[in-house]
Amino acid sequence: MIALSDGPMKMLANLAAFQAGWFACVLGGSLFGGLAVALIVTLHLAWLGRPGEWRWLLAFAVLGLAVDGSLALAGGFAFPDDTLAIAGMPPWLWLLWPLFATLIHHSLAWLWSLPWLAVLGGATSGPLSYFAGARLAGVELAPWLLPVEALAWALICLTLSRRLGQAPALEGRAR
């Protein structure tokens, strides 16, 4: 098994893999996106994954089905007519959720100890990702969708911050 060096190389590889997967899903659709995400997740778990990290990926897959599936069924997304949709949304949209989960313990690990920044990041980056993805994939968004996604991602990031944001004790710090 190939191991990446610790530190910035892991973070950059993690970010690059996520971004490549995002583009594969948004521009390539469900088949190409599915193949890309399967490859990225497999490589992620083999090279960067922590023991039991697959549970986080599975949990985010379920969360994505619940959140975006509900919003799709409520009419938040209007996909092109030829789009394969399961539970109201195409698989490529759903695959972005476990792909995001590959960042949680790696590239975004630093963020969870800063709850205010995590909430702000979720509330802005989440909707921006949906907006950009919709523009590139020819998806129309209901006017209410981006504010709802902002709230959802702010809450998701707040929850992650509360769950994972325990700052390590500083060595040599006076008590």
What is the structural class? mainly alpha
What is the CA-atom radius of gyration, in angstroms? 17 Å
Taken from the alpha-carbon principal axes, the silhouette is globular
Helix and strand element order? HHEHHEH
State mean pLDDT (0 to 100 scale): 90
Q: Tally of extended strands?
A: 2
Neighbour order of strands in the largest sheet: 1-2
Helix content estimate: 55-70%
Largest sheet: 2 strands, antiparallel
Number of helices: 5
Q: Quaternary status of these chains?
A: single chain
- Fraction in beta strands: under 5%
Distance between the termini: 43 Å
Unreliable sequence segments: 1-5, 168-175
Explained architecture:
- The protein is mostly helical and 175 residues long.
- The chain is built from five helices and two strands.
- The chain has helices at 8-47, 54-73, 91-101, 115-137, 145-164, and strands at residues 77-78, 140-141.
- A two-stranded antiparallel ribbon has the order 1-2.
- It is globular, with a radius of gyration of 17 Å.
- The model is unreliable at 1-5 and 168-175 (pLDDT under 50).
Key structural traits:
disordered C terminus, mainly alpha, 175 residues, two-stranded antiparallel ribbon
Can you summarize this structure?
The protein is mainly α and 175 residues long. 65% of the residues lie in helices and 2% in strands.
Q: What order do the helices and strands come in, and which of them pair?
A:
Blueprint: H1 8-47, H2 54-73, E1 77-78, H3 91-101, H4 115-137, E2 140-141, H5 145-164
Antiparallel strand pairs: 1-2
Helix pairs in contact: 1-3, 1-4, 2-3, 4-5
